[in-house]
Amino acid sequence: MGVIPDAMLRKLQDRLRDYLSLPVRISRNMPVPEGSYERNRNQYNSTRILREILREAPADAIKIVGIIDKDMCIPILTFVFGEAQLGGVASIVSIARLRQEFHGLSPDDGILFERLCKEALHELGHNFGLIHCPDRECVMYLSNTVRDVDRKRITYCDSCDSALYAKTEPWRV
Amino acid sequence: MEPKVNILIVDDEEIVRESLASWLEEDGYEVKVAENAARALERLPEKEWNLAMVDLKMPGMDGIELMDEIRKIKPETIVIIMTAYATVDTAVQAMKKGAYDYIVKPFNPEDLSLTIRKIIEHQKLLKENIYLRKELKKQYRLHDMVSKNHKMIEIFELVKTVAKSNSTVLVQGESGTGKELLSRAIHMESPRKDEPFVTVSCASLTESLLESELFGYEKGAFTGADQARSGKIELAKDGTLFLDEIGDISLKLQMDLLRVLEEKEFRRVGGTQLIPVNSRIIAATNRDLTKAIEEGKFREDLYYRLNVISVLLPPLRERKEDVPLLVEHFLERFNIEMGKNVEGVAESAMRMLMDYSWPGNARELRNMIERAMVVTKGRMILDADLSLPQTPGVPLSNNRGKSLSEMEKEHIRRVLLDNRWNIIRSAQVLGIDRVTLYNKIRKYELKKEPVLNS
Fold first, then answer.
1. Confidence (pLDDT) at A25
2. Least CB-CB distance to A47: which of B22, B26, B103?
3. Beta bridge partners of B169
4. Architecture (CATH level 2) of domain B317-388
5. Hey, which of A33, A73, B296, B330 would disulfide with A43, CB 3.0 to 4.6 Å?
6. How far apart are alpha carbons B299 and B318 in whole angstroms?
């Protein structure tokens, strides 16, 4: 949703396929749902976007993770990096705050991509039923800041990984 | 595995409920939602809620009113008030009414995570605290008695051991130290616990009345005995016979009792048939029996018969560390009996209780607390709720405002009293010479007062 470079999406596709051993497909670009815009906050409501993604999801999709360039929030929180239906089908990740320039630094595509991979794996983890992990280096650790994101590795810890392995069993290739 | 943490979200906006629930679920919390206060109150009995996140502005009952209700129904549930409009007034009101926190939407995710973790941690500590206190209490408790005094704990241990035997026990201690409670505890710890516990108060009856009370009588045994009656020894059956104030019985009855203890059988007054004694006998007294023996008022052989196992209960002034524990114990009990909710004793009032010498021991303390709980108006017992008599040995805290010479006069008066007006000894205690003491006695116009019981 919005402007996401194709190359970045293709790289993400490869990463997710390698990591999860699941077939990964890039879906067509979706317009940002109009009703999700919160005028007074100049942000987009992630819960509303999630509903829209769910409506548009192809029938054969096991899980669907949306990537958006807009800054997202929910009513009670100033922002969110992403949102997922726990044990459900859809999730969404925003790259707005993952960009170095959001924090007043010079753009760095490498760092941006690493962060995106972590957050996509994180939200997909939720879709597969995983909850936040107390291990600060596990990708399922709750990150409220990019500092938290950067401290995480691009992998699940042993216990999250084995839980995920069991959950992805039916579709693994 | 850690128990699930239950969170209830109450908000009239669906998007708020859904997004917050989703965010919290990702953190592993068990989340349920309610769209208004009425629905929330319906859901309240469903489980033990750790946390309720309540929107301030809702149609119908608002967040503050709902919080009041939650605190009544589930006082252990922590409430956070959420609002989109921050005003100091509502925040102050919410916090005053007992909200744990007040959140203005939107909230920084890092802060919300921390707030919730803090709440969960706080609750865990509270639960742990309650558990540990219960465990601790168990250790310091023997039926209706509590103590952490080492002598008392030794007695508790002894009781648990001797309860299994049939030996006679002699419980000694000042009045109000809990001699009957301890005897009941021995009974309750013994295999006889389902049998009767029969008390005879030996001091309150004349010799002949006590005799028929103990042994019972046959029809026609004396004028007025128009039908036969069993005595307390018989009524105790296979249980425990508790002879209170044994030091007060006559020498004749001492003889009769000795025979009962030796032969394990007795006759009713005016009866011929021998009745076997199966009960266990516990005797108690606040008198110094060895002194009574010296004075010829108590039979030595009976003393040794009774004193197979000897328990000496220390007076409360020698186990002051038990005062707070006993206070808590009585509060708990009277709260239930009186249907009150008194939470504790103010620090200054507790200091007064600690300073007092408790001549009437734990019983006096119990009566004091009972009275204070009747008169107190608040949730805490305050200094004014206690009716402590002015003890000799006036604690310094009571002397605030008195002048130095008043204090000196009072101190000299007391030392003289303690030393029965022996001037030389009093002067030594005071660290002054005789002449100075005489001068001060004249100056303060101190006079020898008649002392009772001396």
1. 94
2. B22
3. B282, B309
4. Orthogonal Bundle (1.10)
5. A73
6. 30
* pLDDT one-digit tens code per residue, B358-382: 988 999 999 999 999 998 888 889 8
Sign of CA dihedral B107, B48, B120, A144: negative
Domain boundaries, chain B: 6-137, 148-314, 317-388, 401-454
Give the pair of three-digit tokens for residue B432.
């002054």
Q: What is the DSSP letter of B316?
A: G
Q: Do domains B6-137 and B148-314 have the same CATH topology?
A: yes
Q: Which class does domain B401-454 fall in? A: mainly alpha
What's the DSSP call for residue A28?
Answer: P
- The minimum CA-CA distance between B128 and chain A, rounded to whole Å, is 22
* Residues of chain B found within 8 Å of residue A129, distances taken between Cβ atoms: none
Q: What is the pLDDT of residue B207?
A: 87
Kind and range of the H or E element at B452?
none
CA distance B175 to B315: 9
In the three-class reduction of DSSP (H, G, I as helix; E, B as strand; rest coil), residue B269 is classed as strand
* CATH class given for the domain over B6-137: alpha beta
Kindly report the nearest CA distance between residue A152 and chain B, in angstroms: 16
Question: For this structure, is A123 an active site residue?
Answer: yes
pLDDT in tens, B35-84: 999 999 999 999 999 999 999 989 999 999 999 999 889 888 999 999 87
Chain B interface test: which of A37, A48, A49, A76 (most B C-beta within 10 Å): A76
Angle B15-B19-B23 from CA coordinates, rounded to 5°: 170
ipTM: 0.85
Chain B partners within 8 Å of A36 (Cβ): none
The two counts, helices (H) then strands (E), for chain A are: 5, 7
For residue A46, the model assigns a pLDDT of 96
B1 vs A: CB within 8 A:
no
Phi, psi of B238 (to 5 degrees): -95, 15
Write the class of the CATH domain B148-314: alpha beta
Interchain pair A86, B26: CB under 8 A:
yes
